[in-house]
Amino acid sequence: MLFQFTQQGVGKIKESPQRVEAAKDLARQLGGEVKAFYALMGEYDTVFIVHAPSDEVVTRIAMAISSHGYVRTTTMRAFSEEEFRELVREIP
User: Fold this and answer.
1) pLDDT tens-place string over residues 18-75
2) Long-range contacts, 40-46 (Cβ 8 Å, 24+)
3) Of these four, 4, 38, 48, 81, which has the most CB atoms within 10 Å of its CB?
4) How many angstroms separate the CA atoms of 90 and 26, rounded?
5) Average pLDDT over residues 3-13
């Protein structure tokens, strides 16, 4: 889950470590788990590596986090190496 700070998020950047912890707690409450957090250089500002039982859970987490107005989210499904190998094996 990639994040870009909004103007509001940049304006309150000093509070962002506490917001990260709150977002991790929120993810747990909604059935997911944040496995890792990184601050980034470039187009995106931060990223969570999230494990969840379904895409719907990830979507709820993203909507709940972004609803506070400090970040915009972008999500993408990542496939493990083994999942990738299985996908390739199934190509006719």
Assistant:
1) 999 999 999 999 999 999 999 999 999 999 999 999 999 999 999 999 999 999 999 9
2) 40/2, 43/4, 44/2, 44/3, 44/4, 44/74, 45/3, 45/4, 45/5, 45/71, 46/2, 46/3, 46/20, 46/71
3) 48
4) 37
5) 97
* Domains annotated on the chain, with CATH: 2-89 (3.30.70)
pTM here is: 0.87
Q: How big is the chain, counted in residues?
A: 92
Q: What angle do CA 41, 44, 47 make, to 5 degrees?
A: 95
A 10 A CB-CB count for 19 gives 18
Distance between CA 83 and CA 42 in Å, rounded?
29
Give the position of tokens 């304006």: 11
